[in-house]
Amino acid sequence: MIATVYPGKLNGAQVAPASKSSMQRACAAALLHVGQTIISNPGHSNDDLAALDVIQKLGAQVEIKKAMNDNGANIVESIKVISKGVQPIGPEMNCGESGLGIRMFTPIAALSSQSITINGKGSLVKRPMHFFDKIFPALGVTIHSQNGFLPIQIQGPLKAPANITVDGSLSSQFLTGLLMAYAASDAEGAVINVLDLKSKPYIDLTLAVLNAFGWNVTHTNYEQFEFLPHEPLKEVIEYTVEGDWSGAAFLLVAGAIAGPIKVKGLQMESTQADREVIQALQSANVSIAIDEDGIKIGSENGNTLSPFEFDATDCPDLFPPLVALASVCMGVSEISGVSRLAHKESDRGLTLQTEFAKLGIQIDLEGDIMKIHGGGEIKGATVFSQHDHRIAMACGVVALKASGPVVITAAEAINKSYTNFFEHMAELGAKVTLE
Predict the structure, then answer these.
(1) Per the residue annotation, which of 48, 274, 317, 388 is the catalytic one?
(2) What are the tens digits of pLDDT across the range 187-203?
């Protein structure tokens, strides 16, 4: 798909998409919960659909309830998951392109004694999985990988409780899977020790989901995670997926540079890491008003945006929208945490530098710091998403302030996380053509 976004102003209100971080964790917890789980406000991104496919491959039954929205379109209102625990129905599962999915569901699949091959596609086959080669043997799980890459073949069952120490520096997603697998295996009294944990807010979200389902998992300074006794889980559990701060960050930046708009459906008390986008926006002197109806961002008269400094080490997915923001700020903005970008759908540090250069925006990479030179002319040009959903959306947002249309090739990458992104931009007044 080729998306062309034209310069222009935005106005109106938009509801944030459902959080795929919350949705995928809810799917995993629903599989582990012996009983029925009703998931309300479910997401429908490619990663969400991959998670639903995986839990069915691991034995869950999924029933989808649809309803008609105000526009007369059928939407998924809720999803019922019926599970007897991890009971794979075949020898293989595929996590699509979901990094969270592959890292979270692999320890969960290891709860079974059945041999299972775990695969993915796209950029996922190039993302490192060495973590499992190191950890699984200590947990009684046999593993065969391609030198730390997919496909992986495992055979459990994972033996818990077993006190282990893991390295949390590469990704918190590995730890998420272990926490869920341990919780479901009744590992009361077990301790997982973690060294140098990154992306702590994502672990907060994992613990929030586990505790919402009824498991009791605590931590001490994110260094020790302990599994405590808990009441029997309810036969029927209801869980509502919250709005996605990761996707909404693009709407918020779009409103900041071309609004005003209102973004609805976000929880200010959310544990999602990307809620910190509000801090960055405030640092850039963006006009923000928050009330119970949503977040109004941008002003009728516009306002001069200031260069800002922001540490994205614990929320690396904010790099793309914040680079779009920094591009219109009057000076050099600095975002730290570049080392977290190498193993995303693309090497995002280099991808942002390459694609934004086509728009006339200079980005310097200096060790762990990214410097964005903003305030100059943003040129209309043709850019390449590099099959990275967040790069496609970042280019679509900054196009609103360009001197001419921005053509985004391989724009279908947005389907990974925010299928309706260009549609929502158009509903807010942007001129967007898709072909």
Answers:
(1) 317
(2) 888 999 999 998 898 99
